[in-house]
Amino acid sequence: MSEFAVKGNNHRFKEKLSIAAEGGSLTVAFLGGSITMGCHATEIEKRYTNRCVSHLEEKYPAARFTLVNGGIGATTSQFGAARLEDDILRFSPDIVFLEFSVNDDGSNEMFKETYESCLRRLLTSPTAPAVMVINNLFYDNGDNAQGIHNEAAAYYGVPAVSVRDYDWPRLQSGELKRDDLTGDGLHPNDKGMEIIAMLVNNAIDAIADEQDDGEFDYPDKPLTKARYDTAKRFDNRNTTPEYEGFIKDEAKQSDITDIFKNGWYSEKAGARICFSLECSVICIQWRRTIRRPAPIAKAIIDGDTENAITLDANFDEDWGDLLCLTTLFESDSASHHTLEIVVDEQPDNDIPFYITSVITAG
Fold first, then answer.
1. Which residue(s) pair with 340 in the sheet?
2. Are residues 286 and 174 part of one domain?
3. Whole-number mean pLDDT of the chain?
4. Are residue 18 and residue 149 in the same domain, yes or no?
5. Where are the alpha helices (DSSP H) in the chain?
6. Which of 34, 276, 277, 278 is the most buried (most CB within 10 A)?
7. CA angle, corner 302, sides to 298 and 307, nearest 5?
8. 3-state secondary structure of 12
């Protein structure tokens, strides 16, 4: 099979690989969910991210490579667009791999917009990184979001590699066995990670052997509204809302996967916190917890209490607490808004209502 689900334009990769061939330094970054984070790999070195960088090190032994892993479990490209600056772009990446195909919902137009904005922000960033899209899959049914992701990749001339297109036909034919690749139908084990890395590395090798396509033309117009081009994430490190009954969380964050940090929390009914925002989209990141009973709050936009949105922190799963990202308001043009969060119900326990951040776009 072809190495590529989308061939794209190879010019940026040719430029970056020529730097490696001359013994230069390159920063290689990965943005995605739990698969990129390395969940279910038995060793760090067996994550697909580390395998890909190791391949580059073997191919270009005189070069120096720095790996930036921007994977956070159970997160989508909506959050990815908001954290790109802090988790990827501040490291001045030369090559970026983008992976959200099992976290984004391919039938939801919002993710078409947020994923496109991830690509747009990467491609227009100062270091002009080479970008490649990775399509992972649900191993039990072959589902993923590569339809909307690869549409955007093709539009912007970004190469894409599909693990789904490689694994799924082989799983159906019996050439590959589901339990040899994953223990839960979602997260690849060491063998599954090996296949992801093989496909990416084959694509890199193919590009290295090709003629340069020449500079590609950046499209004049986006495919979507592209409001997340200007996505911002506000937590207690960069904004000071008005609050009463909430407490600023000043516990130190260990790394980006230590997700319930830098926010605000309350253990009091009636506690309130209010943000003043200039945007066209308002989202909130908050914790739903398996520790029950948990608090219930409401989100109020521009004082409209009749249309308040319920934020129920009781999480019915058992695998752990969820960093929930809820879109509260959307419009097509930016203007001033207020967001007020009020704790309605606080059980008689020490389980707090936790706000991680507010995300705006547009």
1. 274, 300
2. no
3. 97
4. yes
5. 11-21, 34-37, 48-59, 77-87, 109-123, 146-155, 163-173, 178-181, 190-209
6. 277
7. 50
8. helix
Q: Domain limits at 269?
A: 231-361
Q: Which residue has the tokens 């606080």?
A: 346
Calculate the CA dihedral of residues 341, 257, 115, 164 and round it to 10 degrees.
-130
Q: How far is CA 135 from the centre of its chain?
A: 13
- For tokens 């709050």, what's the residue? 297
Q: How confident is the model at residue 1 (pLDDT cuts 50, 70, 90)?
A: low
Residues 270 and 348 in one domain: yes
Angle at 306 between CA 302 and CA 307, to 5 degrees: 70
φ and ψ at 82, to 5 degrees?
A: -80, -25
Q: Are residues 197 and 258 in the same domain?
A: no
User: Both 169 and 318 in a single domain?
Assistant: no
Q: What are phi and psi of 301, to 5 degrees?
A: -100, 125
**Count of residues making up the chain:** 362
State the pLDDT at residue 3. 85
The two tokens of residue 128 are 């002009």
- For residues 20-37, average pLDDT: 98
CA torsion, ordered 224, 225, 230, 231, to nearest 10 deg:
-80
Domain boundary among 176, 209, 242: 209
Two tokens, residue 108: 């939801």
Helix pair 77-87, 109-123: axis angle to 10 deg = 20
CATH of the domain at 338: 2.60.120.260
Q: What is the pLDDT of residues 139-176, one digit of tens each?
A: 999 999 999 999 999 999 999 999 999 999 999 999 99
**Domain count across the chain:** 2
The predicted-structure confidence for 326-351, as pLDDT tens digits, reads as follows 999 999 999 999 999 999 999 999 99
At 143, list the tokens.
């589902």
Q: Which of 207, 111, 228, 225 is nearest to 160 (CA)?
A: 207
Tell me the per-residue pLDDT of 173-202, one tens digit each, with 9 for 90 and over: 999 999 999 999 999 999 999 999 999 999
Q: Rounded distance, CA 325 to CA 357, Å? A: 9
Are both 238 and 178 inside the same structural domain?
no
